[in-house]
Amino acid sequence: MTVSNGTILEALAEFFTGEGWPFHKMEDEENSLQIGFQGDNGLWNCFAKAREETNQVLFYSICPVIAPPGKRGAVTEYITRANYGIVTGNFEMDIESGIIRYKTYLSAEGITLTPQVIRQVVFPNLLLTDKFLPGLLKTVYSDISPAEAWESADFW
After folding, report:
1. Domains contained in the chain, number
2. pLDDT in tens, the chain (156 residues)
3. Which has the closest alpha carbon to 156: 121, 137, 131, 125?
4. Hey, which of 30, 45, 46, 122 has its CA 20 to 30 A from 39?
5. Domain range holding 97?
């Protein structure tokens, strides 16, 4: 493994510091740093996880809405529509809790984790979460179908 400053976690901290984003180490998630992010369509928490033993970087955006039990089927349909064709990551929902998040991943095996490399994991995640959030909110908080929420969205 080659990183810019020792460990994957150190490289992530260096990236967030360089971007001017306040972060803190999470107590309930080993080797993870949490940040808040304000997009055009909402405010949400994110965390970066360093899997040192497997040379992996994971970045998650936690959507600012939890799907209530009666809407989880509709949310599943909406995020399935959103995931189709995305190559940079995926939306996922914990079917028991209703927590929705977007995940991106990078294998750090044999590469130097420079800020430019980490940016390729973080920025697409933030962009896509922000783009798909209005339709997700419509799916959870209105009576329109996931297909209608999808069709009414302005993604690209």
Report:
1. 1
2. 344 447 999 999 999 999 999 999 998 888 999 999 999 999 999 999 999 999 999 999 999 999 999 999 999 999 999 999 899 999 999 999 999 999 999 999 989 999 999 999 999 999 999 999 999 999 999 999 999 998 876 655
3. 131
4. 30
5. 2-147
pTM for the full predicted model: 0.91
Question: What's the token pair of residue 7?
Answer: 């460990």
Pull the structure tokens for residue 121. 């994991």
Residue at 65 is within a domain: yes
- Residue 104 near residue 58, CB atoms below 8 Å: yes
Phi first, then psi, for residue 47 (nearest 5°) are -145, 145
Cα 71 versus chain centre, distance: 21
Domain for residue 143, yes or no? Answer: yes
In this structure, what is the dihedral angle of CA atoms 20, 22, 26, 32, given to the nearest 10 degrees? -10
Phi, psi at residue 108, to the nearest 5°?
Answer: -95, 10
Residue 85 token pair = 């064709």
